[in-house]
Amino acid sequence: MKRANYLRRTVLLVVGALVVGACYPLDYMPGTPRPSWCDPTDTAVNDGHTASFFANYSQAKGPLSQDNCFAVVGYLNNAINYAAQFPTVADARAAGWIQATVWTPGQGIHFVDPTRLTGPFDPERPNYLLYNGTAPTANLAGLMFLVESGATPPAGFPGANDHWHNHDKLCVDADAEPFIIAENVSDAFCTAIGGVNTVYTSQWMLHAWVPKYAGWSATDIFNNSHPSLV
Asked: Do 57 and 31 form a contact (C-beta atoms < 8 A)?
C-alpha cells in the first residue's frame, strides 16, 4: 500500500518507563544525518530469520530514496504515537487488546486488537503490540503489522526494506488466551497441549521497534527481533 501523500511532522514520544526520545523531523537540513530507519546498517543480518521466511525478497536492504525516507518516517512516527496510548500491558488490556502469543525470544509478548486480527494494513496504526512481559506494568517494546495477503506479502511501506515474513504451522487453541500456544511442534504435541496445528502461510507479519528501547537503538527499524527480549 503506497501513499503519495504523507505527514511531515515531528512527534515526541515518552512512554512511562520506556524512554523513546524524539521521533524524527522530516525536513532534513544539509549536513543533518537522516534517521537510521532510512539507512539500515544490518542488511546482512536480514531480520534474523532463515532464508525460507524471506523467499519473496532477493534485494538486500539499503538506503531509501529521500521521498521514501520521508514517507516511512512519517508513517512510523504516527504508528509509534498511536502505540503510545498503550505504554503498558494494563493499558492495552483496558483498551480491549488481548494476548495473542506466549513469550517469543527476541519478540516478547504479542497483544492484538481483536477487531483487526488480520488487518487491513494501516501504516500508521499497527494491529499488534509487543511487550516485554505479561505483568500489568510490562512495557511496550515494539509494533507488529499482520495482514491476510495470500501467497505473497503485501506492498507494505514505501521502499524495499520492510521484509515481511509468514509462518507455516502454529499451534492454536482458539478458546484460550493466548491463543497461539506453540510454534514448530508436531501435530501430536500440539494436540496434547490442547491446540490444533494451523497453517498460516497466507498471513504476513512485519515488526517495527520503537526507536530506542532498553539501550538499543535499532539499526534496522524492521528488524525481526530485539536483542534485549531474551
From this structure: no
Exposed (0-12), middle (13-18) or buried (19+): which is 27, by Cβ within 10 Å? exposed
Q: Which helix (H) or strand (E) holds 131?
A: strand 128-131
Q: Using alpha carbons only, what angle is made at residue 59 by residues 55 and 60, rounded to the nearest 5 degrees? A: 105
For the residues of 192-211, what is the DSSP string, one character each? HTT-EEEEEEEEEEEEEE-S
- Locus of grid cell 488481548: 98
* 219 or 196: which leads in pLDDT: 196
How buried is residue 150: exposed, middle or buried, by Cβ count under 10 Å (0-12/13-18/19+)? exposed
Please state, in angstroms and as integers, the Cα–Cα distance from residue 230 to each residue in 34, 105, 107, 132, 165, following that order. 30, 5, 8, 9, 20
In angstroms, the CA 3 to CA 93 distance is 32
Identify which of 189, 152, 150, 147 has the alpha carbon closest to the alpha carbon of residue 171. 189
For residues 140 and 94, is the Cβ–Cβ distance under 8 A? no
Span 66-82, pLDDT tens digits: 899 989 999 999 999 99
